Amino acid sequence: MGNHPTEKVPLFAIGYTGWHSIKTARTNLDQANANGLIVSGILQIDPCFYVGDGKFKQHSFDGPAGLFGFLLSVEQLTSDVVSSKPPFMHYVK
User: Fold this and answer.
1) Is residue 53 within 8 Å of residue 62, measured between CB atoms?
2) How many CB atoms lie within 10 A of CB 51?
3) Residue 71: in which H helix or E strand, if any?
4) Distance (Å, rounded) from C-alpha 62 to C-alpha 47?
5) Could you give the C-alpha distances from 83 to 4, 30, 76, 78, 87, in angstroms and in order?
6) Fewer Cβ in 10 A, N or C end of the chain?
7) Which of 48, 52, 46 is nearest to 13 (CA)?
8) Per-domain residue ranges for the chain?
9) Would you state the pLDDT for residue 80?
10) Sign (positive or negative) of CA dihedral 56, 60, 41, 86
């Protein structure tokens, strides 16, 4: 069946307001994870963006697609142990 589950429980930070840009969030996430992956992703609602790290880096999006990027990360986590699934990533590109 699918992939093995992750060894560590992923940590996602979610907030309503905060940084003004996805670039600032990326810089802060990279600094927080400089000595190893601690935070797997940051979802911010206003302005909306999602910044993922590690295996979730490809799900990083600015604007309303950021919420979808976060959901893609959660979907990847929950379906890693399933042998087949639809390619949800194609819906946002």
Assistant:
1) no
2) 29
3) helix 65-79
4) 9
5) 11, 32, 12, 12, 13
6) C
7) 52
8) 12-91
9) 67
10) negative
Task: Say yes or no to pLDDT of 2 above 60.
Answer: no
pLDDT of residue 83: 60
Chain segment 27-86, per-residue pLDDT in tens = 999 999 999 989 999 999 999 999 999 999 999 999 999 999 999 999 888 876 666 666
SS3 per-residue string spanning 44-68? EEECCEEEECHHHHHHCEECCHHHH
Q: Which two three-digit tokens encode residue 32?
A: 């927080």
| Residues 41, 25: Cα–Cα separation, whole Å | 10
CA-to-CA distance for 91 and 88, rounded, in angstroms? 6
Give the pTM. 0.82
The type of residue at 45 is I
